Amino acid sequence: MDQAVRTEDGIRLWAAKTGDGEPVVFCHGGPGLWDMMADVAADLSAAATICRWDQRGCGRSQRRGPYSVERTVADLDAIRAHFGWDSVALLGHSWGAQLALRYTLAHPDRVTKLVYVSGTGIDDDSTWHAEYEHNLRVALGGRLGRWEALRDRDRTAEEDREYCVLQWSADFADRERALRHAEAMADPWFGVNFECNAALNRERSPDLRGQCETLKAPTLIVDGTADIRPRKAVDSLERALPEVSRVQLPAGHLPWVEDPSGFHSAVGGFLAGP
After folding, report:
1. InterPro entries from the entry (predicted)?
2. Half-sphere exposure of 166 (CA within 13 A, CB side)
3. What is the mean pLDDT of residues 123-145?
4. At 274, is the pLDDT very low, low, confident or very high (cuts 50, 70, 90)?
5. Do β-strands 12-19 and 48-53 pair in parallel, antiparallel, or remain unpaired?
6. Where in the chain are the domains?
7. 116 and 93 in contact (C-beta within 8 Å)?
């Protein structure tokens, strides 16, 4: 069921709710993208109420700022309040994992459980980003030249889509199916909000270790072992959290695509547990 959610400053956010049971709110990746986890929602909605939403300025939500982590955390709280939930479980993917963590730290009494999928941890980006850039180029292989040509020039809307599909293809462990998986991510295509992406990526994350060490929400970290973002970046987050488990799946950055049964077993079991 699609719904329009209004933020306190009047921005319209797209949201959809399916299933029955305890509420779980998804936080998609990006920044600047849109929810691409309809398959995950369908898989988990037999045992939970799943809420998907597009972040401010993204996808089916109103394309208007301002853009900041603090503002996006407030928007996520507007989603929770709109549906009348006192507390929710959160499942965040990639940038959305960081968002879900930041929300949980800001509102620990409103989060029952946290699922942190393919995030990049709490260390400074300088500790892992150069290795990610290297891995990206290696994974692109024969598509590297075209990706670099598109990256370094003004692009049409069609070229934006091509550029993103090429880059996303590096996120899959199965190189033979990588481009097909990336094409599926771009269907439907809503257009990346590069302004939002730049604004949120410019923000420097505060040192979160102290807050993480006192976090009471049970947390599940899910990694794809072939993710081109080094998984060691998440080690310090795992060490900081007092109640945490971690599952590593034979997959890339979107583990539910390449190991759906493993992902369902790990996440479904965690959400259904005490």
Report:
1. AB_hydrolase_1, AB_hydrolase_fold, AB_hydrolase_sf, Peptidase_S33
2. 20
3. 97
4. confident
5. antiparallel
6. 2-125+192-272, 129-185
7. no
Percent of the chain with pLDDT over 90: 97
- Give the CATH number of domain 2-125+192-272: 3.40.50.1820
**Pair of tokens at residue 223:** 């990694």
3-state secondary structure the chain: CEEEEECCCCCEEEEEEEECCEEEEEECCCCCCCCCCHHHHHHHCCCEEEEEECCCCCCCCCCCCCCCHHHHHHHHHHHHHHCCCCCEEEEEECHHHHHHHHHHHHCHHHEEEEEEECCCCCCCHHHCHHHHHHHHHHHHHHHHHHHHHHHCCCCCHHHHHHHHHHHHHCCCCCCCCHHHHHHHHCCCCCCCCHHHHHHHHHCCCCCCHHHHHCCCCCEEEEEECCCCCCHHHHHHHHHHCCCEEEEEECCCCCHHHHCHHHHHHHHHHHHHCC
Could you tell me the CA-to-CA distances from 2 to 27, 51, 139, 222 in Å, in that order? 16, 10, 37, 28
Cα–Cα distance measured from residue 95 to residue 55, given in angstroms and rounded to the nearest whole number: 11
How far, in whole angstroms, is CA 17 from its chain's centroid? 18
The contacts of residue 131 (CB under 8 Å, 6+ apart) are 230
